[in-house]
Design a protein that fits this description.
With about 230 residues, the protein is α/β, with parallel strands linked by helices. The protein contains seven helices and five strands. Helix 5 links the parallel strand 4 and strand 5.
Length: about 230
């Protein structure tokens, strides 16, 4: 009698942005059943990001998804993404850690994703962090994510062994665009703008990185800009 093959599951942190979306599609390409996780944390473009997440999850044919509401970040403030009294910079890349950095956001997201992974019996958490061509956020560094993996496995059951995959961590935005197109990721469903929900501003740090990536890849970004 043959033993039924165990289903491989990956908990994918998905913001609705290009990087986390590509990461999720790469997990599906590798044969993982996707458990999609999205966080509403009172960010400026929360409604748009949720809308994009829902469309992407549908395209991925996700059977299990978690949409988690966190009001903690609103009370914390300290970031242009969650505090309307802090302007989103539009003059180019800032020196040091930018004001759009949300304190320990990825650490909190990964911790909650670990709880979901343990409950669901998932062996992988996927996150679309980019270290080499990102905004300079400290919680996007490979060494940090690796340390979170160690901590998660120390703090869960002995039989729980979770690997955090970050397939984009050493890619540049142009490489991310090319990879996404090569596996038919619907980039028109993704959103990167820090400021707007209708038309992307084109001048915030995230828009600049995205547009430059498409430019260097030699293709046109399918979303609409002001």
């Amino acid at each position: 009698m043959k033993t039924k093959n165990k289903i491989k599951k990956a908990v994918c942190v998905m913001s609705g942005g290009m990087d986390s979306t590509l990461s999720a599609y790469m997990m599906k390409e590798k044969g993982y059943e996707i458990i999609a996780v999205h966080f509403n944390y009172d960010q400026r473009t929360q409604s748009k990001e949720l809308e994009c997440f829902e469309k992407i999850a549908k395209d991925l044919d996700v059977k299990e998804k978690y949409i988690l509401d966190l009001d903690f970040f609103k009370h914390l403030g300290a970031s242009a993404l969650t505090d309307i009294n802090i302007d989103v910079p539009t003059a180019g890349v800032e020196e040091g850690v930018p004001v759009t950095y949300v304190p320990f956001r990825n650490g909190i997201f990964l911790s909650m994703s670990a709880a979901i992974a343990e409950k669901e019996g998932a062996e992988v958490i996927s996150i679309g962090v980019v270290e080499e061509d990102s905004s300079g956020y400290p919680d996007c560094r490979e060494l940090y994510i690796q340390s979170m993996q160690d901590s998660i496995n120390l703090g869960t059951k002995d039989e729980t062994q979770i690997e955090i995959k970050m397939p984009l961590v050493h890619l540049q935005k142009s490489q991310i665009v090319k990879k996404a197109l090569s596996i038919n990721v619907p980039l028109e469903l993704t959103w990167s703008c820090y400021k707007n929900e209708e038309r992307a501003c084109g001048v915030c740090d995230s828009c600049r990185l995205r547009l430059n990536g498409f430019k260097l890849a030699g293709v046109t970004d399918p979303i609409v800009y002001e």
